[in-house]
């Protein structure tokens, strides 16, 4: 018993809180935001806004073009800078999940907060792996400079999104020529984006300038993930020439019905009652038919019924503990097939407000009641046979 309970406890999936995105406020609408000046050479294209504050100088637009609004030293730019300070401090204050140092080339990193106590570089390809989670977040805390080499690349795989990548840089950032960079750079001092570099993100400098040279900036839009209700499934199946149904009532009876070519029913009553207390607002139905399997589906009503069918139908009911579950395509609502509300094999008690551990223990209790009833009947048959 202890081993079984321990296995259930260890088998319950534990929820792990994902890192929250960094809130950029009004700075989110900017592709480029400088502290003192913004300079540009060539036909740079910005998908978002362009701004500077507290400085007022913006040069090179045109030939550069910003799709969003341009704000030079006005109230909107000042508000964006204020929001940038909040976002910068938020990113810098996150608890690190791992440490990085030197060159990030060749590494594959999952979502998390990565802290560097010195300068950080990228001389080739860095891969960010979302592991199927489009909400995964990467925050890089760089104590000093961030420098990427020419033709370097940040690669996103398995659902990773550029809108969830943040680079908090303690001094200045420089992106090498003809490189592909991903994420929002929040630099304390300045940002230099050299010739031909493409950025899926933003260049936001708090105090210094932003320098551009024939670049392309896109503002990545986060793809939304539909909210689903995960569920855990438990299916009990058996196939034989004889089907057996055990039902227990809350008074003083235990009934065993056995159906084969000839139907025989044995009923016994004693002073000891087998009671299944009701502890949740769910229903467990146990349909069983000869030469077929017995399946345990459930829905969210407070009722438990057990039915055995062989030519005719006999029904008995008892209040009991329900376990609403699905598995391998067996639906957890009304016993139908297919469940559209969540991935298979994860906790499905969210609709009742119960924890996954409680659901597992409730299911174990129901199973023990059934096994106890069967054992009681076998003992009585053995004693009668001896007489």
Structural write-up:
This protein is an alpha/beta fold and 387 residues long. It contains three helices and 30 strands. The protein has helices at residues 2-11, 75-93, 356-386, and strands at residues 30-34, 37-41, 45-46, 49-52, 57-58, 65-66, 70-72, 98-99, 102-103, 108-110, 112-116, 120-122, 125-129, 138-142, 146-148, 153-157, 165-169, 173-175, 180-187, 191-193, 198-205, 210-213, 216-218, 243-248, 253-259, 264-269, 283-289, 298-299, 303-310, 312-317. The strands form five sheets. Strands 1, 3, 4, 6, 7, 8, 11, 14, 17, 19, 21 and 23 form a twelve-stranded parallel sheet that branches. Strands 5-2-22-20-18-15-12-9 form an eight-stranded parallel sheet, with no helix packed on it. A four-stranded mixed sheet has the order 28-27-29-30, with no helix packed on it. A hairpin with a 4-residue loop joins strand 24 (243-248) and strand 25. The longest helix has 31 residues, at 356-386. The model is unreliable at 1-16 and 226-355 (pLDDT under 50).
Assess the beta-strand content as a share of residues: 25-35%
N→C terminal distance? 33 Å
Helix content: 10-25%
Rounded to an integer, what's the Rg over CA atoms?
Answer: 32 Å
| SS field, number of helical segments | 3
């Amino acid at each position: 018993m202890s081993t079984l309970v321990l296995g259930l406890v260890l088998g319950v999936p534990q929820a792990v809180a994902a890192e929250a995105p960094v809130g950029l406020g009004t700075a989110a609408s900017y592709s480029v935001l400088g502290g003192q000046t913004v300079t540009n050479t060539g036909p740079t294209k910005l998908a978002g806004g362009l701004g500077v504050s507290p400085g007022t100088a913006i040069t090179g637009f045109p030939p550069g073009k910003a799709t969003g609004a341009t704000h030079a030293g006005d109230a909107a730019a000042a508000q964006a800078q204020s929001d940038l300070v909040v976002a910068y401090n938020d990113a810098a204050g996150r608890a690190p999940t791992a440490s990085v140092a030197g060159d990030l080339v060749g590494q594959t990193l999952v979502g998390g907060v990565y802290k560097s106590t010195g300068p950080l570089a990228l001389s080739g390809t860095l891969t960010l792996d979302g592991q199927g989670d489009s909400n995964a977040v990467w925050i890089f805390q760089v104590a000093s400079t961030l420098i990427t080499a020419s033709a370097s690349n940040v690669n996103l795989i398995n659902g990773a999104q550029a809108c969830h990548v943040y680079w908090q840089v303690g001094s200045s950032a420089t992106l090498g020529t003809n490189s592909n960079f991903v994420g929002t750079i929040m630099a304390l001092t300045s940002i230099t984006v050299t010739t031909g570099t493409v950025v899926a993100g933003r260049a936001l400098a708090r105090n210094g300038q932003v320098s551009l040279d024939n670049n392309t900036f896109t503002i990545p839009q986060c793809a939304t993930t539909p909210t689903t209700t995960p569920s855990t499934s438990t299916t009990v199946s058996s196939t034989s020439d004889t089907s057996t149904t055990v039902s227990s009532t809350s008074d003083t009876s235990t009934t065993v019905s056995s159906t084969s070519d000839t139907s025989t029913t044995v009923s016994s009553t004693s002073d000891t009652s087998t009671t299944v207390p009701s502890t949740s607002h769910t229903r467990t139905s146990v349909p069983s038919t000869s030469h077929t399997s017995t399946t345990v589906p459930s829905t969210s009503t407070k009722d438990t019924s057990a039915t055995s069918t062989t030519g005719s139908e006999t029904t008995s009911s008892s209040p009991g503990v329900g376990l609403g579950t699905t598995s391998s395509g067996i639906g957890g609502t009304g016993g139908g097939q297919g469940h559209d509300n969540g991935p298979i094999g994860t906790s499905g008690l969210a609709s009742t407000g119960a924890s996954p551990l409680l659901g597992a223990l409730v299911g174990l209790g129901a199973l023990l009641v059934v096994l106890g009833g069967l054992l009681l009947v076998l003992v009585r048959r053995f004693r009668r046979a001896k007489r």
